## 1
Amino acid sequence: MTADVNPVGEGATLRQAQTALTEQRIVAAATGLFLADGYVATTLEAVARRARVAARTVYVRFGTKAALFKRVVDVAIVGDTEPVDVLGRDWMIEAMTAPTLAGRITAGAAVARQIMERTGALFAVAQQAAAVEPLIAGYWQEGREGSRHAQRVFWTRLSDDGLLPPDTDLSWLIDTASVIAAAETYLLVTRMLGWDLDTYQAWIAATWTRLLTGPGGISALPDPELVDEGSPDRVPLVVAHPAGQEVEFVGGDGGNPDRQVGELPV
């Protein structure tokens, strides 16, 4: 009868669920404090108070503030505390298995957008913290390497599936796409240009597409109906905007992603 009431493993499963719930509370509390107060001003004691757990619990689980911050960023990148990395997520698998090149680029740009939507503000905190905390600087570099690895897998899969143009320089493509998708690049374009997430996503899709019309790719062939005859150097690239519109990136004017097809420059 005892076995019926308390089956083998039930206690362990309950403890695991309680541990996971506690971690979620700590991560949520830490996320709010890091965003509100910054890395330096946030303490593990303050995190414990906000999470309503003992300070010892935070120290035992994470050890250091740097380790806690890394966990906060890692959770934000993938969207939850489940032990599944970026490459194992459904949305990344979809981006790597779409049947066409355009479909994969579109899905890949959507992946970049959702990661930055969840993590962009934390990346800004991390960038500042890396200047004063060697452990964060090390984690920042690990993040760069992880992002580049994901880009290598994404573009290599496209090559293996025969979806890239003939004679594409895969190494060059991976290197350049990695820079475009880097956290530093997102922070730069949002700060310098004031782009929102829709514009960022459209730019990622358009720029990745243009990589395939540059060195090692195929020649760009403009649509005669879209080229301004008075400006032969203006080669438009039309991509799908996340809001359902078409966005025109025009060579020769800086590729302003705010311009819509048929709209005069201002």
## 2
Amino acid sequence: MVSKAERLQKQLEISTARANAAKEALAELRRIQNQKAKKEARKKRNHALFESAGLMILADLVDTESGLPAFDRGALLGGLMAVSKTLGYGPESTRFQEWKSTGDALLAERETLRKKTNPERDMETTSEAITSILSDNAMRD
């Protein structure tokens, strides 16, 4: 016959084993969730980088076929650094407003052209539109 102490000891061992298994399962679920979150963050970052590359393509700073800079890399970087410095003065600067209106006009023109050639895609988000423009450029080139 098993004593009460032995029975309770057995229950404790079983409960401890179940608790450890639950802890391991929880740790695995958290690891999977973290992995998914990191993958989603990476996907969003990559998408933003592709959109930025698309703007460089629209400005004819990058060759669409090769993906290489259309100009000397040092000159391109220096120019981009000057642009960054100028944009740092804020949206109230005259240069910022000039560049913004020029850029917005080109984006609006491209969007209008896209809607005319692809009317079923009227409900696209801005990022989807830029992706579409990039793919249109790739097919055209």
## 3
Amino acid sequence: MPQVTALEPPSRPAAPPRLLPRRSERRWVRPLLVLIAMIVLADALIGDQSLSSGIRARREYESLGVAVQTLRGQNERLRDEVRRLREDPGTIEYVARKDLGLAEPGEILVVVK
């Protein structure tokens, strides 16, 4: 039996593969990237979570930390004063004489204006 071979159409030369899109097809990519970069930069500089907001918040945090330390020191002094007013007879006598104008029996009170 004779063998039949199929005739193949003449082959065309293979086109080289396209690696990059044509310049006209990617024309819009660069302006789009620039626009996106500008939007991100603007948001980073002036948005709600911006760099300036972060710096402002950090300064406020530091100033509030100083205020807290000042108030803690004042609170400690007031606690000490309360303790002395409750327990120390000398402090109680001083406040009674100074603020209330009290005197011990036999003392003469002289008011100078």
## 4
Amino acid sequence: MTTLPTFVTRILDDLGQSHLAGDLAEELRAGRSSSWFWWQVTAAIVNGVISLARREPFLIFRAVAIGWIALQIANGQLPFSPHLELKLWMAQSWLSGAIIAGQYVATGWVVALFHRRHRAGVVIASAVFLTFTNAIVVALPIVLGPHHRDFSTLAIAVSLLLPLLTVTGALWAPRSQVQPNELR
């Protein structure tokens, strides 16, 4: 790999760390390994999300709430959801995996749409929150006892990886037209 993937440049730019993109590209051309590159990208993303959470905790809270509510509405889990029968239909559908994946992508798109200026940071924070909530849902039957253990290893892995699709949805959301020196 000698050039940066486009999505990495976009995420670093959204996190306010676009200056690192040039440095990473230079290091790649100088012969650094791809594992070194991904380690640096991961560290920059984690650093960017943590610094955003420290600067704007209420923004992160709002984004997580919007993401959770959007997902629950799409699942038909809230009383005001447009189609309460959706959850039952999805459980019986042969397309249920694709529908659930689409819900996570749509959730990321909605969160990014409401937070255009800080979309990468807030969507990643929402994905982390949704991963933890899915982990709790998976862990509860295991903790409750042997008669509740009906999860396969694949189901556990999928439920923990699905929230990562919210980042994919965020990449499709329109980019902010706000200049860096303007207010949110």
